Each structure stands twice: as structure tokens, then as C-alpha cells.
Amino acid sequence: MNEKVRCLIIGSGPAGYTAAIYASRANLSPVLYEGIQPGGQLTTTTEVENFPGYPEGITGPELMEDLKKQASRFGADIRFGIATSVDFNSYPRKVTIDGEKIIEANSVIIATGASAKYLGLADETKYAGMGVSACATCDGFFYRKKTVAVVGGGDTACEEAIYLAGLAEKVYLIVRKPFLRASKVMQDRAIQNPKIEILFECNAVGLFGDNGVEGAHIVKHQGEANEEKFDIKIDGFFLAIGHKPNTDIFKGQINLDSVGYIITEAGTPRTCVEGVFAAGDVADPHYRQAITAAGTGCQAAIEAERYLSEKGW
Ligand code: NDP
């Protein structure tokens, strides 16, 4: 038999857990499914120094464990399980967990996050948390006065390179094409920054180092007659080749933008489906911070509470 819940939260990053804290305190008896990566993207970072309230910093996994405990303390029902399909045309909304169990929810908060894209090099895994990062704002501080590389040629890559140039001694921007894809203004800022050296038509094909990242193997004009191989010495390797919002199961059920982010009503977590809200990176291509995700998680829970009370559920 299907299980009926008042508020279903999908995802367990800062958005999902914050939504669970607020929803449980509002007596919505929320049920939260943790998803593929319990704790979300922050569990793959080491030190988090920009989340307010932790003057000495905290590790990503500890922060997520604290958020989880806080949600449990108020009665949120936190479960292992992955949402595998949804039916938002039905009423209540139906969400299938692990391909078998169907939850009927009066309100749904989607907080499935986004995943940074990686190049797919074995060395990215080998040096995870030891010099490889997909978030300059999170980890840039550790590279003050050091040398780093950023991969990508879009707005994110330029923005991250410029941000890192404010901290590091030198920044390589590794761009696979002979031009940047970023907006003109961002291109100009990156090109004019004396600390940024752009390596056009280059691919990073590997990393090396005994104690974390100490350098990258670069190939210029890869696969062409004038192919050239060289190494650069770096302390940090940042990926900025895009993010993929985790929205595959929502295609056709809810409005997504061309990249796949959930479209919400400006300044709110409301989606085009009544009673379904989106919080955190799944609906945010711009800020992608733990604190902004937590903020929208709070908004989503408040919206869910108002929605349920308007309906008298
Ligand atoms: P984009 O998709 O715009 O750019 C991705 C970049 O990564 C491209 O240069 C692409 O190269 C490169 N890339 C992709 N895969 C690989 C690979 N396997 N190896 C090497 N390079 C690779 O992503 P962004 O995250 O930069 O931006 C996403 C959206 O967010 C855009 O619309 C952007 O404008 C917007 N944005 C806006 C900002 C702002 O306005 N301040 C800040 C950040 C993002 P190639 O060009 O060859 O495909």
C-alpha cells in the first residue's frame, strides 16, 4: 500500500536538511529521502570555512552530520532511499522510491542538488580533497600565495580564475578551444588580470605529486600533428567545466531550463506545479553555496507549511 505523507523532502544537502528542520518544527512530519549521496556535495569537501556559525571552520561531513542531527531532533523522518520517478500530474503527488515504494505527498520539496562535472581522469579521484576541487569559493582560501589551475572557458571558469587570482600567486586557465566561451566582460577581466595565464587549446590529461597535487600534465593541440606535451607546477586543480543539476527524474513533470535547472518563480522556491517546491542547487545556477541552499531550504519549508494550511491539510 502507498504511504501518505504531508511533506516529502528529496535530497539531503544543506537545502534538504534545512527544509527538514523547518518543516518538522512546523509539525509537517516531514519524511526525507537522502538520495545517492547522503549529505550531498559538501561530504566531498574537506574544510568548510564560510558557513556562518563556525568561526574555526568545520569539515563538510561534520557539518552535514550536524544538520542531520538537528533535523532528527525535531522529528524529521530521515531515510535511506533514492527517488527514482515522480508523477506530478496525480494528486496527491506520487514519488517512487528505489523503483518500488510509492509515497503520496501533499507537498514535495525537491533538494536533489547538482553535481560538478569532472574531466573523468583517474587522478581527479586519486587527489580528491588533496588539491582537486570544483569550488573556488569553498577551497580557494587554502591556496593563498600558491599556484593553481582552473579548467574551463565559460563564465564559471573565468569567475573562479579571477576569484583565485585575488588569493593565489598565479592562476593557469586551461581552455580546450582557441577562445573563451565566457561573456565578453568576464573574458576581458580574465585576460587583463596579470596573475592569470591562459593556456588555449590545452587539455589537462593527468596530475602528479607525492603529497597531494604538485603539477598537471598538459597536452596542447591534442591529437593533431603539432601536438605538444608539457607539465605545469601547481598546488591546486580546479574544475569549472559546468554543473549538472540532478533533475533527470523530473523531466516532463516540471519546468526545467535549457541546462536542466528547475525553474522557480522569481525570489521563491515555488515551481510550476502546485505544492512542489525546489530548494538549493537544483534550482540555482548562480550562487551554489551551502548557505544559499540552506536559505532556500528554509523558504521551501515555509512555503510548504503555508500551502498545506491554505488547503486545510
Ligand atoms: P559552460 O557550459 O558555459 O562552460 C563550460 C566550459 O567548460 C566551456 O568552456 C567548455 O568548453 C568547458 N568544458 C566542458 N567540458 C570540458 C572538458 N571535458 N574538457 C575541457 N573543457 C571542458 O558552464 P559554466 O559553468 O561556465 O556556465 C554555466 C551557465 O551559468 C552559463 O550560462 C553561464 O553564462 C552562467 N554563469 C554566469 C555567471 C555570471 O553571469 N556571473 C557566472 C557563472 C556562470 P567548450 O567551450 O569547448 O565547450
Structure commentary:
It contains seven helices and 19 strands. The mean pLDDT is 95. It has 313 residues and is of the alpha/beta class. Helix 1 runs parallel beside helix 7. It starts with a strand and ends with a helix. The chain binds NADPH dihydro-nicotinamide-adenine-dinucleotide phosphate (NDP). NADPH dihydro-nicotinamide-adenine-dinucleotide phosphate binds next to helix 5.
Architecture blueprint of SSEs:
Elements (H helix, E strand, L loop, with lengths): L2 E8 L3 H12 L5 E3 L13 E2 L9 E2 H14 L3 E3 L3 E5 L5 E5 L3 E10 L3 E3 L5 H5 L5 E2 L2 H4 L7 E5 L3 H11 L4 E5 L9 H9 L3 E4 L2 E7 L6 E6 L7 E6 L2 E4 L3 E3 L30 E3 L11 H22 L2
Parallel strand pairs: 1-2, 1-8, 2-5, 8-19, 10-17, 11-12, 11-17, 12-13
Antiparallel strand pairs: 3-4, 6-7, 7-8, 9-18, 14-15, 15-16
Helix pairs in contact: 1-2, 1-7, 5-6
The structure holds NADPH dihydro-nicotinamide-adenine-dinucleotide phosphate (NDP).
Quick overview:
With 313 residues, this protein is an alpha/beta fold. The protein has helices spanning 14-25, 60-73, 122-126, 136-139, 155-165, 184-192, 290-311, and strands at 3-10, 31-33, 47-48, 58-59, 77-79, 83-87, 93-97, 101-110, 114-116, 132-133, 147-151, 170-174, 196-199, 202-208, 215-220, 228-233, 236-239, 243-245, 276-278.
